[in-house]
Each structure stands twice: as C-alpha cells, then as structure tokens.
C-alpha cells in the first residue's frame, strides 16, 4: 500500500522536480532566517512553512546543517555576482583604491545579514553535523568562490599577486566569522551595553570590517613588495 503524498509538498519523481523541491526548501529556510536567528530555525519549522513534514525535508537534506550549507553557498554566489559589479576599477591612487574596495566589500556584506550569520557559524556549527560527502561538496564549491573573489582583487589591485590575494581572502573570512557575532549580539548583551560606560562595546560591522580590510590590504601590499625586491 502506498502512503498518501504530503499535503503541499509531494515527493518529486524526476530530477527537474527534485530541483524545484530543493529550491522551495531553500527559499522557505531563507524566509525564516530573515525572521529569526539561525539557531532557532529547525527542519520541522521549515517543513511547516512548506505545508509538509520533517521527513519530507530529509529526503533532500540529511540535516539542518546540510541545508544551511547549501543556502550559504547559494547566498555567497549571489553576493559574489553583485560584488563583481560594484567593486571599483583601477583609476585612482593605490591608497584611494584600497579604501574604496574595502568600503564596497564591507557594505555589500553588511547588506546581506543572512549570509554573514551563516558564514559566522560555519566552523563551529554548520560543519559539525553533516557527512564527509556533504562537507567535501561544500568545500569544493567554497574553493571556487574564494578563487573567484581573489581574482576580483588581483584584477583591481595588480600590485597584489595571486598568493597575496588568496591570503587576503582567507583572512577576510576569519574576520567575518569573529566580527559578525560581536556586531550582532543577543538581546541580553544589547541591554547590558546600553550602559554609557560600555559604549565602546557597540560594534559597527561595515565600518570595522572595512577598516580591517584596509589594514590587511596595506600590509599585504608592503609584504608583497618586500618579497619581489
């Protein structure tokens, strides 16, 4: 006897149907992440948003973390597409160009809080409850994304070689992972740092990340020059 299909989210039979289902799941998860912290979003809640059950989601994503990894990958691809259009081209002084690139990079990320939140959870949460196959697939896609970002940098900052650009990209991810949670604390922390004596505890993500990027780029330009002497 065949079980009845789930209301609102029937099982896909063909590859193109599976892709439609996967997109619907990712879209539902993205909607929920816009409404509440990632730690509060469960597979069951995503399934409810779709009118189905948790088992229907697990047919496509083995865990919540696997789903979030794919959502992170999709969001990062969209960000890179936008960043490539927005990054300034050479034409000004090196110092001015570094400043403009850092500011554009930082602000484009600040406009995408879901991407930053998931990125900040990558090593500590998202890679902890998934199979090696899922992690491998994600890391291969991540490698391509990071190489693409490094390529954007060397195209606009020709005084940085490939090695320096890749180092910059790796360091920028470390900064995002550490900075985003401090710039977006929970309600209890927000209430605590409302104390005027703790004014310095307020962190503006875009401003701080832009400054950190400028420091990294300036330092790498100097080191790159030292290596090529």
From TrEMBL:
SUPFAM superfamilies: Homeodomain-like. The keyword DNA-binding applies. PROSITE patterns: HTH_TETR_2. Residues 42-61 bind DNA. Residues 19-79 form the HTH tetR-type domain. Signal peptide: none annotated. It comes from the Bacteria. This is Transcriptional regulator, TetR family.
